[in-house]
Design brief:
Rossmann fold; 2 domains; 6-stranded parallel sheet; alpha/beta; Dihydrodipicolinate Reductase, domain 2; single chain; 9 helices
């Protein structure tokens, strides 16, 4: 466990200034409880643009290793390409620096396990950047499920689609997108899947799958269905939880949550006097909107300051990565694949 932070202001570094790194930069610069010390990115123009928005005291580096070697950091945000997550995060952990590493926690299960082990052995905070856990609509949905609004959950279905991002060439949708929904399914259901099956295809991407359908089977009998792709012409981010009393639907983008009553309580209507039809009554559930990344950083810096555990741990990130890799194996081999080390998790 990381010891409580004793400094006046948390000294922060950011490694990687791509799309997500710049969002982290914007958020860090808006905070008064941390001090940005240094940023690193190999692209000279990108680094220069970032530094122009910072205090002149902030140092810029082409290499995160040089930044870690020269600066005394309390926390590092790792937003480099996936294939570099392991190298940069491990170096920071070795130096005793708390790490928030963007998902996936690493590009391989072996590397992810090594990061988790290194953080545990050194008592260093390692948080995986599964930002959707902090989306207010997911927090609201999780609260409803924890309160027992559905006495029994039957299934959970997610869709995460949009046009292919030009920036991603090192992984496909299973690692880049499905890890989000795997983590959300596990968190909402409070259990890990015991086996998975999947189908994938490559339509536009030159090296990796750009569409994947996955089925996740849970110990309780719950079934998870995920649909991830880089082919949808508009950005879509939704989750549907179906249970005995009805159905919750959450939209990540609009942060809207609805509940539709189940058919058992409904009076049928008829179409043309023939077929019985049931239309559930749908209600809107209030959600306090906020930027998920801001809430994620609140949790990370709070854990650094107080010496508490990460809300989304390195082990959580490793579980999501493991399941995503097994979905690819299932798709390639045309069979269901058993997920190792299954069990209940705290909801």
């Amino acid at each position: 466990m990381t010891t409580a932070f004793r400094g006046q202001s948390i000294r922060v570094g950011i490694a990687g200034l791509g799309s997500m790194g710049r969002n982290h930069l914007r958020n860090v610069l808006s905070r008064d409880d941390v001090t940005l010390v240094a940023v690193a990115d190999p692209a000279e123009a990108t680094l220069s643009d970032a530094l122009s928005a910072c205090d002149p005291a902030v140092r810029g580096y082409a290499d995160p290793s040089a930044m870690l070697g020269e600066q005394e950091l309390d926390a590092l945000i790792v937003a480099v390409p996936t294939t570099l997550h392991f190298k940069v995060a491990l170096e920071a952990i070795t130096k005793g620096v708390a790490v928030l590493v963007e998902k996936p926690v690493a590009s391989s299960i072996v590397d992810g396990q090594q990061l988790v082990d290194a953080a545990h052995e050194r008592g260093v905070l390692l948080q995986t950047g599964h930002i959707e856990r902090f989306n207010p609509v997911i927090r609201a949905l999780a609260g409803r499920l924890k309160a027992g609004d559905l006495t029994r959950i039957h299934s959970i279905k997610t869709i995460r689609g949009g046009p292919m991002p030009e920036r991603i060439r090192d992984v496909g949708v299973a690692i880049d997108l499905a890890t989000h929904d795997i983590d959300i399914m596990i968190d909402l259901l409070g259990e890990r899947p015991i086996r998975v099956s999947a189908e994938r295809s490559r339509q536009v991407h030159t090296a990796h799958e750009d569409l994947l359908y996955g089925l996740l089977y849970f110990p309780s009998g719950n079934v998870g269905l995920l649909d991830v792709n880089w082919l949808t012409p508009e950005k879509q981010r939704r989750v549907v939880v179906l249970g005995s009393e009805g159905m919750f639907q959450a939209d990540y983008l609009t942060q809207t949550l609805t509940f539709t009553r189940g058919a058992a309580e409904l009076v049928p209507s008829y179409h043309g006097g023939y077929a019985a039809m049931f239309a559930g009554e749908t209600v809107d559930i209030p959600v306090d909107h906020a930027e998920p990344l801001r809430l994620e950083l609140d949790a990370f810096f709070g854990a650094v300051r107080d010496g508490t555990s990460a809300v989304v741990s390195g082990a959580d990130g490793l579980t999501a990565l493991t399941v995503a890799k097994l979905l690819l194996t299932a798709a390639d081999e045309g069979r269901s694949v058993t997920v190792p080390s299954t069990g209940q998790v705290a909801r």
